[in-house]
Q: What sequence folds into this?
């Protein structure tokens, strides 16, 4: 929340509370847990020393935003501004594990529909995605 002070923390807390309310209403974590979370959980499975869940989700958000056609560069820049990791190296994870996690992610919670149900990434496509986003 670098440089945002009290207002930045207020926005963060509102977002967290809103997610909690949405999950309570839905009776599951689905409203706040998309493809970026599946990527993080896949990293937990394949990487010998996974990073923090939230940091992995941040890196996953960059790549998933690109798949959605969203402003992934803007997301990456905002993560950089607050000092969050945006690359496999900054997570302390080898690039091959990022690629493997991207390929595996859709199978982590197959009952949850995400962008990964629309785009079944091959190893080659996963590597290209991670490279294009500057993650590896």
A:
């Amino acid at each position: 929340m670098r440089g945002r002070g009290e207002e930045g923390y207020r926005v963060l807390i509102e977002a967290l509370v809103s997610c909690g309310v949405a999950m309570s209403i839905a009776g599951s974590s689905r409203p706040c847990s998309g493809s970026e979370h599946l990527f993080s959980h896949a990293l937990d499975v394949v990487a010998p020393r996974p990073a923090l869940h939230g940091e992995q989700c941040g890196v996953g958000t960059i790549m998933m935003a690109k798949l959605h056609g969203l402003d992934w560069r803007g997301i990456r820049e905002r993560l950089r501004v607050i000092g969050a990791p945006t690359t496999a190296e900054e997570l302390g994870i080898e690039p091959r594990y990022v690629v493997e996690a991207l390929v595996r992610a859709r199978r982590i919670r197959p009952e949850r529909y995400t962008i990964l149900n629309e785009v079944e990434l091959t190893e080659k496509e996963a590597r290209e995605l991670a490279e294009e986003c500057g993650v590896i």
The CA atoms of residues 62 and 74 lie 9 Å apart. The chain has two domains: 1-32, 33-132.
